[in-house]
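Late entry, written up from scratch paper. The run itself happened at the end of the previous shift, but nothing got recorded in the book at the time, so transcribing now.
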Amino acid sequence: MKKISLILCLGIFFVGGCAQSSTSTQNLPVLDASSQERLVESLKIISASVPAAQKQKFDGYVDFYTKYQFPSPKSYERLATELNGKNYQEALQVFNEDLIALKKDFDGSISRLSLAGIPEIASQPSELSKIVITNLTYNKATHVKEMDIENKTDKEISGLQIMAREDFEPGPNKKMAMFIVDFPLLKPGQKAHVTEKEDISLAQEMLAAKITANMPAVAIQAFDKDKMLVLNNEGLFEAIDALEKLHFLADEMDRVLRL
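Output as recorded:
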């Protein structure tokens, strides 16, 4: 009888243990994604139920999505159905899969903007394209930039920010330089051969050193005699700003995915 009793006791213990394991996730708090505000609030609440081993990653996802995704109604709607009613384990899986897909989309946008968008915008016909820059050279020994500039605009100019590139066709790994050059006042219709010795500052020297002989160049900003901006390629600078933001967010995604 003692043996039978022991077996019965072990059986009851085993069944009880299994039952406890199978219901361990059922008592976890779940997300309420019925609104943006409730989703953010319930993410904070269920964070307390996340074990230490996964808490850093979970909180990293929550921080990223709360800052950069859920404030956008479109992003909230994309994830609300998938997150609603999920516990921390299920939410982790949703966030991980979504962030991997999101990073892929961002990488594609960065590639398209870097390789095609910015060079194309820089070289599009505009008032700035009436400033013709030719015979661009840079002497790495003397740090002297030289170029011919023809001002076909109706503005007086004495300074330019210039983008130079091997060519302005889309493509990777092409040398590009951006730099500012000052010169005596150039009136509408005038031409000049401009020579300027580069200030030996690390940033300027690094940028100027990327200039190769006769590299095609376009003006992207023009300044008057008082160095006030008179012409600006707004589309280009908006694209550059957008690219910087995309790079920042892509870096943030990489950081979170590595947690």
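Confidence is low (pLDDT under 50) at residues 1-23.
(Scratch paper discarded after transcription.)
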